[in-house]
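input
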Amino acid sequence: MTTGLVQWLPEGAFDVHLHSSPSLHKRIMNDFEVLEKAKRAGYAGLAIKAHEGSTVERAYLAAEHVGGIRCAGGIVLNDAVGGINPDAVETALRLGGKFVWMPTLSAQCHKLHFSGGKDHSGICILDEKGGLVPEAHEVLRLVREHDAVLATGHLSNAEIHVLINEALSVGVQKILVNHADFDFLRLDLSEQADLARKGVFLEKCFLMTLPPWNFIDIGTMAEHIRVLGEACCLLVTDLGQPENPDPIDGMGLFCAGLVASGVSEKQCERMLCVNPQALIGSQPHAAGPS
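output
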């Protein structure tokens, strides 16, 4: 647990998974507030994620408003944008989006888990033969052409493996497994290590250590990082919920907890400063249509 720890953050942090308002869900900060606090804390930047759809335009405006700090956005392929919708993806990427997140709250895997196996609706990206649906192939093409980050959202274990293998086969260069320790993804440590060997990045997510989730404790996460190596891991918070610390304070607690559990400060810097910027590149924020 992180209770009582003194916050610690490396200079140049970049959290690529947090939530802010406006949102249909309660959030502790709006886009401007979280970016302003991140700037004061010495962050290089943030990426804003929203289950409702695109944050590309929001990220652009937040970066323009605050100044002196990067802000990245992307699109989550939930029902609100038509699911696996290549047209929505192309628009978001042409506007400068950095991330394409696969379905989260609309994913069949998510709905099955949180309904206790009763709700079989939701988006599955696999066809009846176990391959990707045609729309997913088109999304991969767009991600590759725009050098964006393909993120796995709340897909099932089977969907994650099929998606990543196909993405690698068609030349997608940047792949991120969201909250790799989420229990319903069922990605054990050996599977995570196998994905890492393929060049895939894995989120190590503070929210997964907090109640009511408690999927993994900080000590176990630190041990997993030592096994996997810091070169393939990203530290993210997934915070923004009013019952939790805000994303900036939360990241300070997360880093302090990892360091107290044996992860070095240098390793934290690699996972929080270097690896995220390797994913998103040097473009500050949305650049407008191309």
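quick obs: The mean pLDDT is 94.
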